[in-house]
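User: I'm preparing a small set of examples for a lab meeting where we compare how different chains pack in three dimensions. I only have the primary sequence for this one, and I'd like the structure in token form so I can line it up with the others. Please keep the answer compact; I'll paste it straight into my notes.
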Amino acid sequence: MTDLTKRFNKQVDKIAVSLIRQFDERVSDIPNILKLTLGEPDFNTPEHVKQAGSQAIEDNFSHYTGMSGLPDIRQAASKFLEEKYQVSYDWQSEVLVTVGATEAISASLLGILEAGDKVLLPSPIYPGYEPIITLAGAEPVYIDTSDNGFVLAPDALEAALNEHGEAVKAVILNYPSNPTGVTYSREEVQALAEVLKKYPVFVISDEIYSELTYDEDHVSIAEYLREQTILINGLSKSHAMTGWRIGFIYAPKELTKEIIKVHQYLVTAAATVSQKAAVRALVEGINDAQVMKKEYQKRRDFVYDKMSSFGFDVAKPSGAFYIFAKIPANCLQDSMEFCVELAQKEALAVIPGIAFGDAGEGYIRISYAASLESLTEAMARMERYVTAK
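Assistant: Understood. Below is the structure token output for the 389-residue chain.
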């Protein structure tokens, strides 16, 4: 019988299912497992948003929309960004509605990359970018930020741009960061923009956690570098709408008209019912994230204090809902071995840092998108494990 797997795109051989998902599935069958693994808000979608979705079903919004999305959601998305982050995009020509931020990332990268291109990524970083870069035949180049509090320094960025030269097609930023929770101040964003404007590179700025910042307001790099930036955002984290699959691409019209070609052939358009619900989230629910943010901040402080007291070195997160902690010296230093043993002995699941690249080895990521009750039990299990070591 013919082995058709040998006829697959050879680039597929170079990618794998995310280690986050692999590990989550690996430990799911452990009895009484307490999982702090996935970046999934434990809140429900706000009631008024759900009602808008239900009404859209009743009103028979069950047909295709245009490729870019419904006019009302694009208008609302443009206004949301301007009110929140002082960045203006024309809703008719510079806003695309996507199937979550994931499709926004894929459409953007596949639209700009060719074989031989290089993409700079500050590391550790969410593992959803590298596979798309690889599928496009391009090469990811990592910049280790672990010695700088997980913040990409302008001089490190410029050094990488100079080292790799014209092969660099794009730089990816993700802030607040998954997995570290670290974000960038206005001064840090401005400094990165000053470097990037000197080079003919795209800046793909994944700002999906922009509504979840704790110490100061989020600053989009598009405020300083609009003409080079492909800005990605969405409602999964801000409005607990992961399953509704609504994301956005904001970019200058010259870029948008090219990216929409890829978007069309990937998905045609985002789900119509989800788009109608999203309008309610963006307009009437413009500040829905505030209630969730207050609760996340309490959880952050609790987990941060506990993990620090157990001997973990933790960069205090200023956004998102993750703790990225360096494993204490008395414990297993291989992050996968640490997490497997923790799950087996204490029925507590967290993500090994290696899932976020080589710079993440020796760390673990904890998602505190869980109830304070669950986090209290998780910290008790973590303390037992570390103390026993």
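A couple of notes for your slides: The first helix runs from residue 19 to 27. The first strand starts at residue 34 and ends at 35.

User: Perfect, thanks.
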